[in-house]
Amino acid sequence: MDIHATPIDRATLLPHLHLGQENHPGWPSVLFGTTARAGTSVDASLAVFHFKRFLLCSGRLDAARYVRDRARLAWCDLDHYVLYLPLQRGLAGGNGLRVRVQDVVVLDLAQPAAFGMAAGEGLSLVIPRVVVPHAKGQLHGLRLCRQSTMGGLLGRLLASLAVAAPRLTEDDCTRLTEPLLHVIAACLASAVTDPALVVPDAETLGRRARRYIEGNLQRDDLTPAVVAKALGTSRSQLYRAFEPFGGVARYLLQRRLRRCLLALGEPANAGRRIGDLAYVYGFTDEGHFSKAFRKAFGLSPRAARRALQRGELSASYAAASGAHAPPSLARWLHELAGQ
């Protein structure tokens, strides 16, 4: 019996980007602050594949020191993990962290990080925190040794996925994404000491809730009770789904503050009162808004507006908004922020 391969329509292939110096110099700074040797710049040549709920990056990064400090954390929406598999050169970080070739290291994008890396090939996976919701503080800086059972399995999985990604279709992605995330979660769960770390069953509810919140941030009556009622679930189930984010109320506040920050940087809003912008996104008390804004971003709304208008916050603002990223990558990062 002859088996004939069906040609793949390139329009149905998994969305992907090829990033390099010719189309986007310095793009690694979207996630990390970077410092190269004197007289050199930091660049990358990467293929980025969008699996709807996570990004897979494959390629070469330049030698540099990569830093994600508290100032960058305050401005950046991403609350995800990065799994990095070095293929040619390892990396070294604080607290004695040493990652060898083909080890897997986990970095929590919601926590500070600093590490040095030699130029070389590697694979990165950006995955949502809700995959492993009970692991707060346990995964950051975790190294899965290539000789360990789960470290070896996870490394081979990432390598195989990178080989297959250029030929995968969007239909393949739909079928593979959730099972892949569950396998990754199981590998990570076995590497930490918390026996309660399990693949979450509230994942779908959490994603639905975040989409609902994003579409209703302008409502001043948007509360956990309103969200639970709209989704037909109990408040206790909703609270469990938002445990990775510090609770529903905290998540609501962060998203509203983030929207206000972006609004302050829009030229079209240059003449609008700050209090009016805050009111648009559900803040009825201007004093409360100013206090919460300062606590979140380290400066007052008025100072933030001036700094944005003068370009003094350009690097941090770009990290948050994707302003220095290619259009598709900026959109993908924004989509991940809402996962």
UniProtKB/TrEMBL annotation:
Say which domain of life the source belongs to.
Bacteria
| Matching InterPro entries | AraC_XylS_family_regulators, Homeodomain-like_sf, HTH_AraC, Tscrpt_reg_AraC-type_HTH
Q: Which residues form a coiled coil?
A: none
Domain HTH araC/xylS-type, first and last residues per copy: 207-307
Q: Does the keyword Secreted apply?
A: no
Question: What GO terms are given for molecular function?
Answer: DNA-binding transcription factor activity; sequence-specific DNA binding
**What is a single Pfam family found in this protein's UniProt entry?**
HTH_18
Q: Which PROSITE patterns match?
A: HTH_ARAC_FAMILY_2
Name the UniProt key words of this record, in alphabetical order: Activator, DNA-binding, Transcription, Transcription regulation
Known role: Regulatory protein of the TOL plasmid xyl operons. XylS activates the xylXYZLTEGFJQKIH operon required for the degradation of toluene, m-xylene and p-xylene.
Q: Which PANTHER family match?
A: ARAC SUBFAMILY, HTH-TYPE TRANSCRIPTIONAL ACTIVATOR RHAS-RELATED
Annotated protein name in UniProt: AraC family transcriptional regulator
Native source species: Pseudomonas soli
